[in-house]
Design brief:
Elements: E1 4-14, H1 22-36, E2 40-46, E3 49-50, E4 57-58, H2 60-66, E5 75-78, E6 92-97, E7 101-107, E8 115-117, E9 127-129, E10 135-143, E11 146-154, E12 167-168, E13 171-172, H3 175-206, E14 211-217, H4 225-231, H5 234-237, E15 247-249, E16 262-264, E17 267-269, E18 272-277, H6 278-281, E19 284-289, H7 300-303, E20 315-319
Parallel strand pairs: 1-2, 11-14
Antiparallel strand pairs: 1-20, 2-6, 3-4, 5-6, 7-10, 8-9, 10-11, 12-13, 14-18, 15-18, 16-17, 19-20
Helix pairs in contact: 3-4
C-alpha cells in the first residue's frame, strides 16, 4: 500500500461572494493544495453562499478552489448548521477523502450540553455558552479490514466573547467586561475539547486499538488546556493503564525552528495540529509543515490590502501501512 498522507489546513474565510480578490486567492491556494498531495484533507473556515433568499446554500468557493487540483473527485463530508439541515454561512468544516467513507457524523453538544451562565458584568441576566461550530467525524476504509477515524475540529480562538451591555461598536466599556468575555471564550474552547475527548473515549471503548487522528485548528499550543484535554497524557491522568488512549501531536517530531503554523505579532506559535492515537503513531513515517510563506496574522492585513494568503500553514502527516 502506498503512503497515506493526511493533512489539515485552515483556509481562513474561503468565500467567493465578493468577486474582488478571489482570483488572487485561487492563484495562491491551489498550488498549496497540490503540494499537500493529501489522501485525506481536513479543511476549516469554508463559507457557503445562498443562491437565492432562503434558498439552498452551496460551497461554490470550495468547488472553484478544488477545480483542477485533483481533489474535486474526492469523497466529501461537510458540517451543517445548528438545525442540521444545510451548510452554515461561515466556517464550515470539510473532510475530503480519496478513501471510501464508511460512516460520518457531526457532534455539537451531544455529549456536553450547552451551559447556562449568569454574567457578572454587562446587562444580560442569563446567557447560554455554546460552541461556535460542531466537530466532524468520519470513518474511512483503509482496506484489509482496517479503518481510520478522522475528526476535524476548529476550536474557539482566544478572543473575548460578546457580553451584552459591555461592548458597543467593537469597543469594550470596561476591563472587567473584556476579562469576562475572554474567560467565556476559554470556556468554549475547553468545553468543546472536552466533548471531543469524550467522543474519542467512546471510540476507544468500542475499538481499543483504533487508528484515530484528530486534526484541525485548535487555537492552542500543545501545553495549553484544549490540547491537553484532547491528548490526555498519562502524566496528567496519573494512570499508566490509560496510556494507550492518549493522543500524540505529530508536530513534536518536527525541528523546533520549523514548528509553527501561525505567526502572531512576531511570535511563531503552533496552533494547527494532527493528534494521533498510539496505534496510528506506530504507522507514522514523516511530517511536513508548509510555513515558508507565512505572514504575520496581525501585521499582514494592515500592510497588505486584501491579503490573499491564509495566515495558517498546512500540516501533513504521512503513514505507512503494510
Amino acid at each position: 500500500m502506498p503512503p497515506l498522507r493526511l493533512a489539515t489546513f485552515n483556509l481562513e474565510n474561503l468565500d467567493d461572494r465578493a468577486a474582488d480578490g478571489f482570483g488572487d486567492r485561487l492563484d495562491l491556494l491551489r498550488p498549496q493544495l497540490r503540494r499537500l498531495r493529501a489522501d485525506v484533507l481536513c479543511l476549516q473556515e469554508v463559507n457557503a453562499r445562498e443562491e437565492a433568499r432562503h434558498g439552498p446554500r452551496r460551497l461554490s468557493a470550495l468547488d472553484r478552489l478544488l477545480d483542477g487540483t485533483g481533489y474535486e473527485a474526492c469523497h466529501r463530508v461537510v458540517s451543517l448548521n445548528r438545525k442540521g439541515k444545510r451548510f452554515a454561512d461561515h466556517h464550515n468544516l470539510v473532510i475530503l477523502s480519496r478513501l471510501p467513507i464508511l460512516e460520518q457524523r457531526q457532534i455539537w453538544h451531544d455529549l456536553v450540553p450547552a451551559q447556562r451562565y449568569r454574567p457578572v458584568t454587562g446587562t444580560a441576566r442569563d446567557m447560554v455558552v455554546e460552541w461556535d461550530r460542531p466537530l466532524l467525524l468520519a470513518r474511512l476504509d483503509l482496506g484489509a479490514e482496517q479503518t481510520l477515524w478522522v475528526m476535524n475540529l476548529h476550536l474557539r480562538a482566544p478572543r473575548a466573547a460578546y457580553i451584552a451591555g459591555d461592548k458597543e461598536h467593537g469597543v469594550w466599556s470596561s476591563a472587567g467586561g473584556w476579562a469576562e468575555g475572554f474567560a467565556l471564550a476559554a470556556m468554549k474552547a475547553a468545553g468543546q475539547a472536552l466533548e471531543a475527548r469524550l467522543a474519542i473515549d467512546a471510540l476507544f471503548a468500542a475499538e481499543p486499538h483504533a487508528l484515530l487522528a484528530a486534526c484541525g485548528d485548535l487555537n492552542a499550543d500543545d501545553h495549553e488546556t484544549p490540547v491537553r484535554l484532547l491528548c490526555a497524557d498519562q502524566e496528567d491522568t496519573g494512570n499508566g493503564h490509560l496510556a494507550a488512549q492518549t493522543l500524540v501531536p505529530v508536530d513534536r517530531a518536527l525541528p523546533p525552528a520549523r514548528r509553527h503554523s501561525v505567526i502572531h505579532a512576531g511570535r511563531p506559535v503552533m496552533l494547527d495540529h494532527i493528534l494521533v492515537s498510539r496505534p496510528l503513531l506506530g504507522h507514522y513515517a514523516a511530517g511536513e509543515l508548509h510555513n515558508e510563506t507565512l505572514g504575520d496574522e496581525l501585521l499582514s492585513p494592515a500592510l497588505v490590502r486584501g491579503a490573499p494568503d491564509s495566515m495558517h500553514a498546512p500540516l501533513v502527516a504521512e503513514f505507512l501501512f503494510p
